[in-house]
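Support request from a user on the community tier.

User writes: "When I paste my structure tokens into the form, the page sometimes reloads and wipes my input. The last time it worked, I copied everything first. Here is what I submitted, just in case something in the input itself triggers the reload:"
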């Protein structure tokens, strides 16, 4: 639970918020420079002068809710046999994406996972080989953000509106 937004606040309150005993000996400088949740909506100053009022609203257990995103995606036939490739770029809250595909509207494949940095474009396109020129390939990209070692915070799915015709290019 976060510290209050106004009123009296003590070092004991801050200790308790950070999971320590209220009576643990601590200084404002030590509290502000050690084990501070940088995702809290309020982060106390880590430089002097230090003040109790810097801690109003601090939440040591706060975890942000992010919305991962795909900022662009393009599927195109390569003109080499029946290979269709997908290139995509993720948004600033996205760390990885799962990509799956289907051929001719069939069963979706098991997703492959691609780890990317914020706003990064997939460096090696995802390629799918269909069996003949009449085949169509559809992709689905499921971006996600991992928080605190494995929690999925949210997702936003991109699905190509129309399949890419393997022989159409």
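"...and here is what came back when it finally went through:"
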């Amino acid at each position: 639970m976060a510290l209050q937004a106004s009123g009296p606040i003590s070092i004991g309150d801050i200790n308790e918020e950070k999971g320590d005993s209220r009576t643990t000996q601590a200084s404002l400088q030590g509290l502000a420079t050690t084990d501070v949740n940088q995702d809290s909506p309020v982060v106390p100053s880590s430089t002097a002068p230090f003040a109790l009022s810097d801690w109003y609203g601090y939440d040591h257990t706060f975890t942000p809710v992010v919305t991962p995103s795909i900022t662009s995606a393009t599927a195109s036939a390569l003109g080499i046999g029946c290979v269709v490739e997908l290139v995509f770029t993720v948004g600033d809250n996205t760390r990885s994406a799962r990509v799956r595909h289907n051929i001719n509207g069939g069963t979706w494949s098991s997703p492959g996972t691609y780890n990317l940095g914020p706003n990064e474009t997939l460096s090696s396109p995802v390629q799918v080989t269909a069996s003949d020129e009449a085949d169509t390939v559809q992709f689905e990209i499921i971006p996600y953000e991992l928080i605190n070692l494995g929690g999925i915070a949210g997702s936003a799915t991109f699905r190509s509106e129309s399949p890419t015709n393997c022989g159409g290019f």
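Agent notes: The reload is a front-end session timeout and is unrelated to the input. Helices lie at 11-17, 28-33. The longest strand covers residues 136-147. Escalated to web team.
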